[in-house]
C-alpha cells in the first residue's frame, strides 16, 4: 500500500481541521477583539488626521515585526528547530538535548541583539520615515511611532516563543497571546484617554503593554519543558557562530528580501494613500481589518498547523503525506474563503455600518471604507492560499522561491497602485493588492513544479475543480439572500444601528449558510462530511 493511499492519509483533511480547531477558535476570539479594537479606534478617531497618524505609527513597527520576527521564525527557525527535535529522537549527536539548548540560547541572543539595534535606529530615524507619508499631523505621527517602536522587541520574543511551542505542536498559548494585545489596547483606549493628550496616545500605550504580555503569557508553557527547552543569553560572537543560528541566517537572508518586498506593499500603499487625501489611510485599514478577521481565523491557523507537519514530512522524505496534507490545506481554504467572499461582497455596507458607524465614523467614512472593501475581498482566496503554499517551500528549506514570488508580486502591486491611486484612491489601491496576491499565487504554484516529488498537477486539478464548485455553490446560495434582503432590511429599518443593520445581517447570513449547507449535504461534499464527522466524534 502506498503512503499516499494508506489509512494514515485518508483522513488528513479531517486531521488538519481537527488540529487547527483550537487555534482557529482562539484566533477567532483574537480577530473579533482586533475588530473591536478597530471599532474603538473608529469611535474615538474616525477617519480623521489623528486616526491616519495612529494607523501609520502602528504600521511601521508592525511592518518590521512581520519582516524580522514572524518572517524569520516561520521561514527559518521552525524548520531548523524541527530538525534538531527529530535528530534528538533518532539519536545523532547534533540533536542531543544540550545542542537544542545551545541553539535556542544562541538564537535568542542574536534575535534580541538585532531587534534592539533595529528599535534604536527606528526611534532615531523616525522623522525621516514619516516624511514619505504626507501626514497632516506630522509631529503627532512621529511621537506615536517612537512610542510604539519598542513593541517590535516584545513581539519578536513572543514570535520566538511561538516558534518553540508550535514546533512541539502546542498551539493554544500562541493563539491566546494576541487576545491579550487587543483586550489591553481596548481597555487602555478608554481607561487612559482621560489622562493622555488624545485617545491615540492611550491606544499606543495599550499596544506597548499588550506586546509585552504576548511574550510573557507564552513563557510558562515553555518552562514546563525546561528539561529540553532551557535556554539563556550568551555572548553575541558565540551566538553568531552557532551552526543552528548560521543555518537560520542562511535561510532567512533571501527570505528577508522577499518579505521586505511583500511588506513594502503596505508601506508604499500607505504612502500613496496618505497623499491621496484625508481618510484614505484609515479607510483602507478598516477594510483590511474586516478582511483579516476571516483570513486570520482560518488561513493563518491552517498555515501554522501545516508548517511543522510539512517540515517533518519533507525532512523524512515522506512525500505522499506531504502531498496529501498540502492538497487538504488548499481545499479547506477554498471551502472557507470563497463562500465568505461572496457573502461579504453582498453585505459589505451593512457590515461596515454595524461595526464602525458611530460617533466620529460618519457616512463619508463608511463610503470610503466600502469602496476599499469591495476590492479587497476578491483577493481573500489568493491571500489565504499563499499562507498555505508558502509553508510548502519553507518546509523544504527553500526560501528563495517565495522570495522571488514576493518581489514579483510587489512590482505588480506597486505599479498598479501608483497608476490607480490618484484616480480611484482607496479602491485602486485595494484592487492592486488583490491582483498582486493572485499573481503571487500563480508564481508560487509555478515554482512548486520544480520538485518532482510534489504531485502538483493532480493537486492543482483537484483544487481548481473544488474552487469552481465553491464559486457555483456560493452564487446559488446568494440568490435567496438577494431576493429577500430588501424586505428584511425594510422590516428592521429605523430601530437603531445595532438592530437596523445587525438583524438583517444575521438573518441573511442564516439564509445564505442554510442554503449552502443543503447544497453541500446533497452533493456529499468531502470537506463538509469531514466537519460532520469531527462534530459527531466530539459528542461521543
Task: Describe this entry's structure for a reader.
The chain has 540 residues and is mostly helical. The chain contains 20 helices and no strands. The longest helix has 42 residues. The protein folds into two domains: 306 residues, no CATH class; 222 residues, no CATH class. It is globular and about 70 Å long. The N terminus is likely disordered. The protein is 85% helix and 0% strand.
Percent in strands: under 5%
List low-pLDDT spans: 1-10
Overall SS class: mainly alpha
State mean pLDDT (0 to 100 scale). 82
Number of strands: 0
What is the count of distinct domains? 2
Terminal Cα separation, in Å? 31 Å
Instruction: Calculate Rg over CA atoms.
Output: 23 Å
Write a concise keyword list for the protein shown above.
about 550 residues, mainly alpha, 2 domains, disordered N terminus
